[in-house]
Design brief:
By secondary structure, the chain is mostly helical. It has helices at residues 6-15, 26-38, 43-52, 56-73.
């Protein structure tokens, strides 16, 4: 039995705004923050998944924005 990786799930949430419409905006930032806080995220793997969906640059910018927000709140 195969399971999806956390990296793939995060990319799916980021890319599929129709399916995951309830998880957009602030909720998506919370999901990403919690995932990065609780799990070891392989960012290279995550960006490879995003690249296949032609969203690598957008996801990279989103992650940078989120990490900047985290630093400000600490």
């Amino acid at each position: 039995m195969e399971t999806a990786t956390i990296e793939k799930m995060l990319v799916d949430i980021f890319c599929d705004d129709v399916i995951f419409s309830a998880q957009q905006g602030a909720e998506m930032r919370t999901i990403f923050k919690n995932a990065f806080d609780k799990y070891t995220i392989n960012q290279s793997k995550m960006l490879r998944y995003a690249d296949r969906r032609r969203k690598k640059e957008q996801l990279s910018q989103f992650v940078k924005t989120i990490s900047n927000l985290w630093r400000k709140s600490m």
